[in-house]
Write a sequence for this structure.
């Protein structure tokens, strides 16, 4: 049954990359535009729907979890290296946008930590 989870992941990837390439073609770019992201969204939506309908058994879920634990970090690393390469070739505006986005994300970590934490949360102190 784990093979069904792997097949679902593969199908979502193929559909996502196809949609990404069609989007790239429509925008006049000879590249995939967000195909992996679209694939991940598809995977989340499809697995959620299958779970709610009771058609997604535990072994299939284990197949998706296994491959996603390996697959997602590799794809994110590949996409990040492409983004950095494109930013270097894109000039100052692309580098500035990337730097400001990273600074904004890092500065918002404490804000989100306070929002998500509770008053009884002792996870910050070592025992």
């Amino acid at each position: 049954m784990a093979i069904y989870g792997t097949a679902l992941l593969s199908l979502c990837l193929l559909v996502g990359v196809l949609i990404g390439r069609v989007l790239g073609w429509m925008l006049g770019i000879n590249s995939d535009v967000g195909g992996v992201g679209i694939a991940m969204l598809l995977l989340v939506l499809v697995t959620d729907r299958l779970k709610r309908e009771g058609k997604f058994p535990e072994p299939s879920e284990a197949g998706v979890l296994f491959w996603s634990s390996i697959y997602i970090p590799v794809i994110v690393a590949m996409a990040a290296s492409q983004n950095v390469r494109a930013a270097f070739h894109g000039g100052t505006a692309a580098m500035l946008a990337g730097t400001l986005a990273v600074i904004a994300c890092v500065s918002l970590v404490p804000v989100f930590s306070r929002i998500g934490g509770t008053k009884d949360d002792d996870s910050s102190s070592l025992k």
